[in-house]
Amino acid sequence: MRLKDKVAVITGGAGGMGLATVERFLAEGAKVIIADFNDATGAKALSDLTAAGFGANARFIKTDVAKEADVAAAVALAVSEFGGLDIIFNNAGVGGAIGPVWELEEAEWDYTFDVLVKGVFFGIKHATRVFREQGRGGSIINTASVAGLSGGCGPLAYSAAKAAVVNLSRASAVQLAPDHIRVNAICPGFILTGLTHPSQKTLEEAGQFMDNMQPWPHHGRGADIAGTALFLASEDSGFVTGEAIVVDGGLTAIGPDLWNRYGTPREATMTKTRLNRGTTGAANTTRELKK
Ligand SMILES: NC(=O)c1ccc[n+]([C@@H]2O[C@H](COP(=O)([O-])OP(=O)(O)OC[C@H]3O[C@@H](n4cnc5c(N)ncnc54)[C@H](O)[C@@H]3O)[C@@H](O)[C@H]2O)c1
Q1: What's this model's pTM, rounded to 2 decimal places?
Q2: What architecture is the 7-256 domain classified under in CATH?
Q3: Active-site residue numbers?
């Protein structure tokens, strides 16, 4: 039990990787507040968790992370129900504004940043107040994205917002280190959740489609993010702060992926080894590999 008697708030905890993390934290002995905008999925998550025997350690509170009072209430519920707070996972998210930059409306941009960035700020702010009062440190985990690390992994406004989450995490980590409050971000690659599962595809079809999106031979799952969140929440990561951990099956490791983009088949690069001696005048050599 790596989180025995720890108390966590998980925003966006009613679905996707948030719910996977709720389940994992509960299994590891934590008490969890599920703070989510969606009443229906929140109620369902709570009733499923109760049926699984976790009812005493889980609560749901309807929360809009873009509203400061809502986030403050979720944090206050952790304290009133479970006696304190040790971990906040600022994970709630949406796709936000999608389309050409010259067509995006101010309100669409604001909605994107309100949920994805301001919501994280509110979570950091209110958790920190409790952590500092308690005087025993704490762990803040923020969901960013690989979209926040380059321009080619997501919609424009979303990419900008997730980049902000990465640096908000780093800057907060620096400011809060003296209080033993760690702040880290997780940058998921493509993870099969309600957000990435297009309604015209079955879950299986969507999974198969996503299997091809990164070097790893199968798609990402909520449980992959939950495992990383558990590491960041637990003492195993006690010296890790200000970090943005990429969990993407090698999606960003492959970088520009030039060989693939310009049509060099994998076969051609994996069936022989070559020693290229450049323009030295010395001969190149090729060695065929045994099958
Ligand atoms: N799925 C992916 O491939 C992927 C990749 C990178 C980053 N992310 C990020 O991961 C996080 C979780 O996404 P997911 O894929 O699990 O999606 P999801 O849709 O399955 O879950 C997101 C949850 O957030 C809740 N939510 C949305 N807006 C909210 C608000 N204003 N206040 C409170 N709750 C709100 C939703 O109701 C939902 O339960 C998001 O921040 C998302 O941007 C997802």
Answers
A1: 0.97
A2: 3-Layer(aba) Sandwich (3.40)
A3: 158
